[in-house]
User: What shape does this take?
Amino acid sequence: MHKPWIDEVRIRCKCGSIKERIPDILDVWIDAGSASWNCLDFPRRKDLFEKLYPADFILEGIDQIRGWFNLLFVASMVAMSNCSFKSVYMHGFINDAQGRKMSKSLGNYILPQEVIMEYGADTLRYYMIGGTPPGVDINYNFDDMKVKHKNLTVLWNLHKYAIEMAKNLKVNPSELKIDLQKFDVEERFIFSKLNSAIKMATETFNEYRLNEIPWQAEELFLELSRTYIQLTREKSSMGSEEDKKVVLYAAYNVLLESLKLFAPIAPFITEAMYQNLRHEFRLKEESIHLFGWPKHDEGLIDKELEESMQTISEIMQSALAVREKIHLGVRWPVKEIVIAAKDKNIASAVEKLRDVIKKQINVKEVKIVESMPNVKVKIKADYSKIGPKFGDKAPKIIAQLTIDSPETVLKHIQENGKHSFNADGEIIDIVKEDLLVTREVPMPYEEGIFKHGLIYLNREMTDELEAEGFAREIMRRVQALRKKAGLQKSDNISLFIKTDDELREMLKDWSIVIKEKVGASQFRISELEPSRKHAFVSNEKVKGKEFEIHLEKV
Assistant: This one.
């Protein structure tokens, strides 16, 4: 009820008097301004006030500069002769994707419930907290929201990966004790990233740079998924028991610490994952939110390794893109990769992590050079750009570009952003968009680009490389059939492969490897029919070669 009707309300008090509205009241902002001690029940209580006043940190929107922030300051200066807060964080407003204020008249407003029902509250928190710097409006759009939701799916899959791997190994990762000396470069990298992330997140929280914290937690768990899990996929599937335990130990511990870092940003999904881990591994702590804040170990941080791994990750992504372009799957080995880069740090990273590159992109040799010989660069004017831009001067410009060396033109553009020359007393500036650049790469190489250089994949295929490629494909198909048959990794099988004489001859040197990798205690490859019927059969075709897989548990 409001004035004047509220003035007619009378309530009898247990003290015997009558309660009624006080006719003269102060501005309601006085209540907000005195909240810093009212919420601590001061002056009735002094213990909380002495312990908690002034506040370490307050948060509100940018519109509160002359509102709440100002009133808190004024009220505490008048009453206490000091400021009632030590730090303040302001967020901006929410606009639509085009930067317009959301309103019913424009029909561009989005209700929080719409987002939460589709993507969950954690996705909204994750997106909003890291969306913009302090005090800056956020232009909300669903595409960015979908990226964050996809990242949460990656995080969820990581905890499923750890649980599944622990079940297969029949071990509890929370009880594993691993000697750090058994760490390969992959483990040293991911534990360095973990401790760097803890260190940075702690500093960022302490400095109230709240918008940066989601990126640090995000980078950590994405590196765990996209780099560490990928680097160790062969070790985790075909390595020794000890190798697999090391991978599980790393994946589990980095995941758990990631959940602790990410819990303030996404409290619900981190709690759901922790409860699953707690149930599977009999963890004592009741909630992820009851853990102490993680502490970093400076001795495990290797920034040089982190930077080197970032560099070779870019190289490997480029190499995989080239493989995709020439339709050559990663299971097919290639003869060599040549990395052309003038930066000595790149050469150092490649030398240090050469074996990682070999294993991840399945290449026999890795070479590093400053530039690839015999690559011819050609440029010509883009008539569709030169004509409208320069008008009647276009013919002279086109003629000049046929005279100047492509290397010189491109060098000038790279260093200065333009190539300049004199045409009839006028300085003409040519930029990269005015040119069509083509590169002729000598056979049998295929070119790819990364941030600081170029890569060249040798696509020449020898008989030995072909044999290895078929062997890898066959092992993958056998593993897929094992999984379809419901077999455990510890189960031994009897394996028979029926194929033509050419493929049988090609694979003869790979028989022992195939047998060991797929867990076959009995293995035979022949162009004849199997002598007996097997429980599981699959017809396969790879690069035009047909073969049959027959297997059963023994």
In short: The first strand starts at residue 11 and ends at 12. Residues 142-169 form the longest helix (28 residues).
